[in-house]
Structures are given as structure tokens and as C-alpha cells.
Fold:
Amino acid sequence: MPRFPIAENQVNNGQALISGTDYKHIVKVLRLKPGDEITLFDTNSTEYYGKIREIGKRDIIVDISESQRVNTESPIEIILLQGLPKGDKMDYIIEKATELGINRIVPVITKRSQIRERDRKKRWERIALEASKQCGRTKPTIIENTLDFHEAIKLYSKRELAIILHVDCEVSAKSYIKNSLQTPQNIVLFVGSEGGFTDNEVLFGNKMGFISLGLGPRVLRTETASISVLSVIQFHYGDL
Structure:
């Protein structure tokens, strides 16, 4: 059943009003008609189930038959600081990280970032929203403004667990998390772009409280590294 986000004030007296880009998607792409079932969700973790009552020229009226609170959000807060990668790899990272329940993603320009664009936030927000629709979340991953390396380190260093991935580190994220006595509720993870971090960047991260960890004997691409370590964290601390 198609899922679409909706603001709480769009639901009144057992009916919901849909307009804008979602209206166009429902009518022009999905070609839904009056009587078709639809699911709506708001950011307070409520899902609404109903049927399309009427399709106007600019909006759609949905009769709500049922609503319920859902719990699809991770029990831990995870923030990903992602060194900007080349091409459309950031799109992939945002989509998969959203499916894994991450709270927010901060694009970061590092020393080895070859892409330094700062104006793709709206596109990334749309990707996070679409991924949320698909995986059943009610709160899309927040995409923050792009920061420079030192800005990001200083801003996000004060967390229960702050990790910076480093390919030369002999201690793996898996072994550290497995043997740690911590049960952190908020975690920040910093993954570099292609080529990883410079030694100076890692040293600065350590100085600011980030723990250097690796991901085993093989060198992973940045998009593989991000999704792999998020999976490890969610498996040990979260809800995977």
C-alpha cells in the first residue's frame, strides 16, 4: 500500500487533505482513484489508514478509517558524518542509512574530498524521505548543512561514543563494540571520502575525543564502509 507523509494539521474530523508534490505523484504516477487504499504517516509516529474519497484539481480527500502509533525508529541516536564522495555515492549512502534507522547525516568536506558541492541538500532530503516511505519509518533522516572537517569534529565530538574510521587502525569496530562495557544511547560515526582521512585529520579527531577504529583486513569503498559499520552498530546497540 502506498505511504505518504502528512502533517498533523492535515488530518481533521476523520479526513486528510493531500496536495503539492504528493498529489502529483498519487494522480500522475501511481494513477490512484477514488476507493483506492492509502497509508499516511506523521512525524509523531502515527500512521493513518484510509481510502481516497475524492480527487480534485489540486488536492485529494482521504477518509481515515483507522490510525495507530507505530514504533519503527531506532532506540539509539546515530549521527553519520560522511566525507563527501564522488558521483552519486552520497545518494546511495543516504538511502541505505535511512533504511538502517540513522537519525541524521552531516555531509563533510575533508582533505581528500574531490567533490565539494554544498547545494544538493534538497535532493538528499528527497532521497531520505522516499527511503522512509519505503522502509516504514515515520521520521525521515535529517540531512544537515555541509560542514568543513574541523567544524564537524568540534560540533559533534561530545557524544557518548564518537568513532572515526581509519584504514590503518588495527582495532576493528566489531571487536571494540563487542568487548566494550558501554551501552551508548547516542553515537557519532565519521567516515571519510575516497582515500579516507589524512593522518593529521585522524590525530585531530583523536584529540577531540574520537576513537580510531578499522573495518577489518580489507579496504572498503566509502559507501560500503558507512553501511557496514552502521549495521554493526545497530546489531549490537540498536534493533537489527
The mean pLDDT is 91. The longest strand covers residues 59-69.
